[in-house]
Write a structure and sequence with these properties.
Helix content: 25-40%
Strand content: 15-25%
CATH class of the largest domain: Alpha Beta
Radius of gyration: 24 Å
Bound molecules: cytidine-5'-triphosphate
Number of domains: 2
CATH architecture of the largest domain: 3-Layer(aba) Sandwich
Number of strands: 21
Length: about 400
Amino acid sequence: MLKEKKILLGISGGIAAYKSMYLIRLFRKAGAEVRVVATESAMWFVTRVTIESLSQNKLYDKVFGEDNDYTTEHISLTDWGDVFVVAPATANIIGKYANGIADDALSTSLIAFDKKVFMAPAMNCKMYEKFAFQRNLDYLKQNNVEIIEPASGYLACGYEGKGRMEEPEAIFAVIEKYFSGKKDLEGRKVLITAGPTHEIIDPVRYLGNHSTGKMGFAIAEEIAERGAHVHIVCGPVSIELKNPSIQRINVKSADEMYHACMEVFPGMDAAILTAAVADFKPAKIHKTKLKRDGRPVLMELIPNPDILAALGKTKKENQVLAGFALETDNELDNARKKLQNKNLDFIVLNSMQDEGAGFGTETNKITILDNKNQVSGFELKSKKLVAVDIADKLVSYLKE
Ligand code: CTP
């Protein structure tokens, strides 16, 4: 896909710059040509020799360098490149680009570039959350700059939070997808469920679980990018969707999710149910806050509707239905039973025994079992890349 593509890779001064060396290799291995433009501070983290050896091209890091081919190298370079990928993109370079500042090789090249720009931010989580930075980021998004969102997790500065540059493989996948123009779900209508459900106990309390909705949102974004019309029915989650074409239906309880899905599903080509639906709800909702009186509180819990099974019952020949199974033991057998009992085409198995899989993580490790007795295991990867594997599986079923 990337054969003979010309990639300008911008590197700014963050510790994640070392990961960009691997990104150069991925681009080169895929047959692309790479030229690197770096800021002065990037060169504290990586060396000229590494960049030039890996890219097999001269590094451009000074607007008026003595060994530049032309004095207007920022123009010739930017004419040359098909895309500009800035990874890592610091708060500084994002701020400069959003405000039209051109005071070094990278910012000057960016302002001269008139094709597609991708930026993979990397910084401390407090810097990432800062209002001024967020304003700059929004401005770039509005102007068709594709932001490859950073992950949350352990940061080099010792903090935990959002700001870690996305892994080189995931950045590579975004660029590859851009060039492949893969629209293999064009016109398809897909329902996704995501997040937890909250089952009301009284006006201030509910029963819930730890689901964050990240996996379901990643699948929704992936299949929308590939051309599908996506409806996402989601329980209470704090994340936002990036793709404005996705229709979001917010619900709280399993009953609300059930009714929304039953209404939407008949018009769909497929549904992938990722939500961690609460299996039980209190038999009685207290109208006023339950008071403590020192005695145990007994609460009767009654089963919630099984949304996936209900859709399985109404599923038509030409509809594809997929679910998730989160298991702690006997994983394959349990997943197989759910696949059959709920009349699914395929099921995505998560094992709680796998490190890096499950609620709230940025990564996931899945096995897909299908109704043709095929079992495919996948490596631990970012949820973004897991979503690609699931979308590929959906495409293979929709083709039939
Ligand atoms: N699911 C659903 N409605 C429910 C419970 C689960 O739609 N009330 C869906 C989930 O979205 C997921 C799949 O069913 O796609 C499997 O959920 P899971 O909780 O693993 O399975 P259960 O059928 O609830 O079985 P158990 O909890 O006994 O393992």
